[in-house]
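Wed. Picked up where I left off yesterday with Class A beta-lactamase-related serine hydrolase. The coffee machine is broken again, so keeping this brief.
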Amino acid sequence: MKSILIAFLLLLSINLFSQEIDKDKIDHYITYIENNNGGIGSLSIYRNGKEVYTRNFGQEKLINTDYNKDTKYQIASVTKMVTAILILKLVEKGELKLDDKLSDFYPEIPNSKKIIIKNLLEHTSGLGNFAVRNGAIWVTEKVSEKEIFEEIRKQGVSFEPNEKVAYSNSAYILLRMIIEKKYKKEYHKVVIQEIVKPLNLKNFASIKSNPTNTFKSYKFAENWNAIKDIEYSNVIGVGDIASTTEDLNIVINSLFQYKILKKETLESMKPTIGKEDWGRGLALFAYGDNLFFGHSGDVLGSHSRLIYNPKDNISLSYSTNGERVPTNIFVENLVSIIYNKEFKLPEIK
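Structure written out below (tokens, as returned):
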């Protein structure tokens, strides 16, 4: 009798794990967003390393815009996950240590003798946000690397390393510069060498690779109208990569299948559950009992979310270049559908 009960419970757990994702329900949700001008974007869902759902939506409402299945989105700060991977590849090769000091590379930066690589990765350095100067975003027009470095230096630090966590764009600019020093190559060439070619990506490029077929950013006012976004050459390694959602899913699935980094290195990227929201290139996204790891990205008009649940081997890649339903709400509803939970259709104003 006991063996029969164990077999029944095992069968039940297998059935729960293999439960089908309700694609019709996802379609209904996306169609609601599309019909109400709630957004323009692309969605890709992977399970067990394979794409089980994909859809582009809203693009046909753009005026005088050519696009196809290979048209890329600006993924903004999801780029930071890639930069963290490249830093950790240097650590694996023995060419860099997490406790190496920033002063070994850029002694001009305040507190650089105390700040280590690990601090830069996990936003505990005390460095700020170079993209905001005098309370305003100033990187919408091309500026020099020297100007950006000087702004980082002038802003200095607001706290001592490890004192607290504060999201830092400046830290990731410096990480990108360290990558270029170590590889003796520009960032976009390192991305090609270490990410694009090994994973056979077709639509994934840093800005200096001059990606074509990339969506502009839009804002809705009776119609979708193109807007001026940041100048992506100002945020290399921080927020400049353009990609399709499919290629993004290939990247995060390859990462969690240890095709890019070793298992122990990946574990070091992840935040400690219950203690950290930010790890070292990966953040924690909790939706009820379902825990995902990944990264989000937001600029003035484009937004992305790339997340992976290692327990169920499910990943979700979402990019939008025209948002009326906030990304957090959009993705939370999708996760609810995937796990057959109740949710409300968002109100679109």
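Quick read: Residues 1-17 have pLDDT under 50 and may be disordered.
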